[in-house]
Write a structure and sequence with these properties.
Low-confidence stretches: 32-38
Order of helices and strands: HHHHHHHHHHEEH
Number of helices: 11
Shape: elongated
Strand order of the largest sheet: 1-2
Mean pLDDT: 79
Largest sheet: 2 strands, antiparallel
Strand content: under 5%
Distance between the termini: 75 Å
Length: 246
C-alpha cells in the first residue's frame, strides 16, 4: 500500500474533512449515534497530518462553523475531537481551546471546549491547557460536565505537591508502649499538616462551583464534586487528628 501523502494546503485539508462530514451527516436530523460508523473515526488520520498551528486553526474555524449548523452536528464534532486531535501538540490544542471559547453560541462554545480538553493525552498536558485564566473562562461556559472536568484536573494539580509521610503506610504497631505512642503522635501530626496544606491549596478554587438548578437567589453555589470530595476527606483527616491529640 503506497504511503499517504500529507496534506499541506489548509483549504484542501478543510475540503477533505467537510466532504467526509457531509457523507456521514447529510442532514441535521441524521441519528448520529445510532451506529458505530457514524462516529467519524475515519477523520482521525486526516487531522493527524496537520503539522502547523496556522493550518490547524484555519481548518478548525471551518469545522467549528460546520458544528454550528445544528445541535446534533455540535455533538458530533465534540464527540470526535479527542480522536481527531490525538497527535496535535499542546500549543495547537491551546490554539483550538482559545478559538472554541470565542464562539458566540453558548451551547457550541461549551461542547467544543469540552472536546478539546478531552483530547489531552495525559494529566500533565491537561494541566498545561488549564491556565488560571483559561480555567475560569471554561467554568463560565455554564456546563456542569465541563466544570466537573476542570475541577478534577485542578484539584489533582493543587494536591500534587502534598507529601504524605511514607511512614504512614508502614506496618501498624503491635505493642502499645510509650515509644510507639510517641511515634504515632509524630505521624498523625505530619498527616494533619499535609491535610491542612491541602485545604489551603484548595481555597483558591472557590470558583469551581455550579449554580443551583432552582432559580432562587438565596441558594448558595454548589461546589464541583471533585472539590467537595477533596475538602470533605481532608477535613475529616484534620478533625480526626485533633481528636487523637486531645
Amino acid at each position: 500500500m503506497p504511503p499517504v501523502r500529507p496534506i499541506t494546503d489548509a483549504a484542501a485539508l478543510y475540503l477533505a474533512i467537510v466532504t467526509r462530514l457531509e457523507e456521514v451527516a447529510p442532514s441535521i436530523d441524521t441519528p448520529y449515534f445510532s451506529s458505530p460508523e457514524l462516529k467519524l473515526r475515519e477523520l482521525a488520520p486526516t487531522f493527524e497530518r496537520i503539522r502547523s498551528c496556522d493550518g490547524l486553526v484555519h481548518v478548525a474555524k471551518e469545522v467549528f462553523s460546520f458544528a454550528a449548523t445544528g445541535k446534533e452536528r455540535a455533538k458530533l464534532v465534540s464527540f470526535t475531537l479527542p480522536s481527531l486531535l490525538r497527535l496535535c501538540s499542546v500549543d495547537e490544542k491551546r490554539h483550538l481551546l482559545a478559538l472554541s471559547l470565542k464562539e458566540p453560541q453558548r451551547n457550541l462554545r461549551k461542547r467544543l471546549a469540552y472536546g478539546v480538553l478531552r483530547s489531552a493525552s495525559n494529566r500533565d498536558e491537561l494541566f498545561e491547557l488549564l491556565t488560571p485564566v483559561r480555567a475560569r473562562q471554561l467554568t463560565e461556559c455554564g456546563s456542569r460536565k465541563l466544570t466537573e472536568l476542570v475541577a478534577k484536573a485542578l484539584v489533582l494539580k493543587a494536591l500534587a505537591p502534598i507529601d504524605v509521610p511514607l511512614a504512614m503506610w508502614q506496618r501498624p504497631f503491635r505493642e502499645n508502649n510509650k515509644k510507639n505512642r510517641g511515634i504515632a503522635r509524630i505521624r498523625v501530626r505530619e498527616l494533619e499538616s499535609a491535610a491542612r496544606k491541602g485545604l489551603s491549596n484548595l481555597a483558591s478554587l472557590e470558583f469551581l462551583s455550579h449554580k443551583p438548578r432552582a432559580k432562587t437567589e438565596s441558594r448558595p453555589l454548589i461546589p464541583a464534586r471533585p472539590l467537595h470530595d477533596a475538602r470533605m476527606t481532608l477535613g475529616w483527616i484534620v478533625r480526626s487528628a485533633e481528636k487523637f491529640r486531645a
